[in-house]
Amino acid sequence: MAAPPQITIRDISGTWVMQGISWWLRKAIAIATITLSVKQYDDDEGVTHIDIEQTTTGGIKTTELRTLDWNVRFHEDRVFGKVDSQTRWVKLKDVDDDEFLKTGWDDLEGEHVESYVKSQNNGWTAHQIWGFENLHEKRYHVRHVVVRNGDDWKQARLVYDYHGQ
Mapping DSSP to helix (H, G, I), strand (E, B) and coil, where does residue 107 land? Predict the structure, then answer.
């Protein structure tokens, strides 16, 4: 289901199911469906938190606790291993990376979520921008991702169906 208009990047709380996964991502994590249960809130200091429970086909669960203050935080899970990550609010004009991360959004002027993850053991990085896009006349939560490992790199657009609160 497309995202209703009242769901914005300022509160993506709800359940989201990833649509079709590209061939390279399937090869990398060997799964067909990813469901995100998202709780987004601001703490007493006004810092945004996005808590995500990710469930894959077969029932493998991981939890991501993102704090949008750009501080580096350690995280470890079964899918991605040991990583350092940082997350923040960002305007697209301030994104310094690949042009792919900045294009296609339904809101080019407002804020988006930026995430940068670095594997501690495997040498890869993943740079993401989260927002909303209109695809086939419907609005979806989308993440643009650029993954790099040495000279190799891949781009992906992850599209999520909204399944309600």
Answer: coil
pTM score, two decimals? 0.83
How many whole angstroms separate alpha carbon 23 and alpha carbon 30? 10
pLDDT tens digit string along 74-91?
Answer: 998 777 788 999 999 999
Ranges assigned E (strand) in 10-80: 14-18, 34-42, 48-56, 61-67, 73-77
Give CA–CA dist 81/124, Å, rounded. 11
Three-state DSSP at 72 gives coil
Say how far apart CA 153 and CA 114 lie, in whole Å.
18
Report how far apart, in Å, the C-alpha atoms of 99 and of each of 33, 46, 111, 129 are.
28, 30, 16, 11
**Nearest-angstrom CA–CA distance, 28 and 63:** 19
Exposure string of 139-159, with b = 16+ CB inside 10 Å and e = fewer, is bbbbbbbbbbeeeeeeebebb
Q: Residues 14-70: pLDDT tens digits?
A: 777 765 444 455 454 554 578 899 999 999 999 999 999 988 777 778 889 999 999
